[in-house]
Specification:
single chain; alpha/beta; six-stranded parallel beta sheet; five-stranded mixed beta barrel; 13 helices; binds S-adenosyl-L-homocysteine; binds iron/sulfur cluster; binds FE3-S4 cluster
């Protein structure tokens, strides 16, 4: 009988990328991908540790999987349960202490060893949260069916140690993949029909991978090199950090047509006092000036960000500074979160937490403002014509779905053979989450 694997991602883009690569690893071992854990021989939860809610979700899911495993066992079927990702890295063997049904715990740097770990788990439970000397990327099989837009990890880890964040602990120190390795993967994606590549990393603009001569190459140059690959029409990158934004990357936005006019640049807060306490090492004004320079290079760039409300010690005045920054800059989209104390991080020890009710009220106010900006941005697209990369069938029969250069989702009537092409679409109406348009021409405008 065909063996099946269910792999679920709970986290950021890098977590989604890792999940896809784990599916590749299991695919090479003969496991077909399935969307339902009920008929899976292997279930992989690729977990996220960034906020308490994300981490706790895993345990309720594991509780359900334990029941499922028991039910399948009664039918003579084996189910291996794997916990991967950042909770695996942070909690290791504790996971199996809390949920004995878990067979394998594997960290984000060792999942290329999954076949071996699964084999060993038949004897006893296995934990592998090492940062191995070998590079996992050298041991991963070819990527399967990536679609027309794909993520490509170029940099991992973080040395910034923001006071609230677990990533430096779960992902380790900052490491960049060599240029040749990135280009080989990009070429393979292009060969598989990918038209858009998003270069990803926890701090992607800190990228400094070794070039052919061994000298470090920055993100701007890497974007230039990927743009030369035939078939690659669009390039994006995420997530970048304000302090690693160099002039070359700003210029790249002006000079490289394939580099899409969209920038996700987390700022977290608009208060200098809170930014200082967060160890972000920049002020609100430094962020504003950086955005001004990026906008001068690429006036139509769409901006996105991340915000945390209720960091310990945040006052009403601090929060007002955040609202002011949002009003002044204007974001196309943004993610905002209540501060969540994370074990092992410096901010978790602070004695001045913001009360839950205050956090909830601030989050609601910030989200209302961000929503109104997002909707205004969507409305401003009405009547305009955009190049759209068609990615998949739409919500309704006869429709397809794709993205504008500014990463707005568009639905329109067109035949499925357009999937994988960049076409020209006139926007007729803005919904809350998606634009609705009409195919203007089979060719892109530029
Ligand atoms: N490397 C990126 C972000 C990685 S985490 C950067 O530097 O911005 C993604 C987002 O999760 C962060 O930008 C932050 O807004 C949020 N986040 C991280 N830790 C958090 C915490 N303890 N509580 C609430 N939100 C958090
Ligand atoms: Fe976390 Fe800060 Fe590193 Fe981003 S830069 S991953 S928020 S420590
Ligand atoms: Fe979560 Fe780990 Fe990504 S903690 S946000 S999955 S790096």
């Amino acid at each position: 009988m065909l063996k099946k694997a269910f792999v679920k991602s709970y986290g950021c883009q890098m977590n989604a990328y890792d999940a896809a690569r784990m599916a590749d690893v299991l695919g090479a071992e003969g496991y077909a991908a399935t969307d339902s854990p009920e008929d899976a021989d292997i279930v992989v939860l690729n977990t996220c540790h960034i906020r308490e809610k994300a981490a706790e979700k895993v345990y309720s899911e594991l509780g359900r999987l334990r029941v499922l495993k028991g039910a399948r066992q009664a039918q003579g079927l084996d189910t291996r349960i794997v916990v991967a990702g950042c909770v695996a890295q942070a909690e290791g063997a504790e996971i199996q202490a809390r949920q004995p049904a878990v067979d394998v715990v594997v960290g984000p740097q060792s999942y290329h060893r999954l076949p071996d770990l699964l084999a060993r788990s038949r004897e006893r439970r296995v934990v592998d949260t090492e940062f191995p000397v070998e590079d996992k990327f050298d041991h991963l099989p070819r990527r399967r069916t990536p679609g027309s837009a794909a993520f490509l990890t170029v940099q991992e880890g973080c040395d910034k140690f923001c006071a609230f964040c677990v990533v430096p602990y779960t992902r380790g120190a900052e490491v960049s993949r060599p240029v040749a390795a990135v280009l080989a993967e990009a070429q393979a994606l292009a060969d598989a029909g990918v038209r858009e590549i998003t270069l990803i990393g926890q701090n992607v603009n800190a990228y400094h991978g070794a070039g052919d001569d061994g000298a470090p190459v920055g993100l701007a140059e890497l974007v230039r090199l990927v743009a030369r690959i035939p078939g690659i029409a669009r390039i994006r990158y995420t997530t970048s950090h304000p302090n690693d934004f160099d002039d070359a990357l700003i210029r790249a936005h002006a000079e490289i047509p394939a580099l899409m006019p969209y920038l996700h640049l987390p700022v977290q807060s608009g208060s200098d006092r809170i930014l200082g306490a967060m160890n972000r090492k920049h002020t609100g004004d430094q962020y504003r000036r950086l955005i001004e320079r990026v906008r001068r290079a690429r006036p139509d760039i769409a901006l996105s960000s991340d915000f945390i409300v209720g960091f310990p010690g945040e006052t009403d005045a601090d929060f007002a500074d955040t609202l002011r920054l949002v009003r002044e800059i204007g974001f196309q989209s943004a993610f905002s979160f209540k501060y969540s104390p994370r074990p092992g991080t410096p901010a978790a020890d602070r004695a001045d937490p913001v009360p839950e009710t205050v956090m909830a009220a601030r989050l609601a106010e910030l989200q209302a403002l961000l929503d109104s900006q997002r909707y205004a941005y969507q409305r401003a697209a009405e009547g305009r014509v955009f190049d759209v990369l068609v990615e998949k069938p739409g919500r309704h029969p006869g429709q397809v779905a794709g993205k504008t250069p500014h990463l707005l989702a568009v639905q329109f009537d067109a035949a499925p053979h357009h999937i994988g092409s960049v076409v020209s679409v006139r926007i007729q109406r803005a919904g809350t989450n998606s634009l609705f348009g009409q195919l203007v021409s089979e060719a892109a405008a530029a």
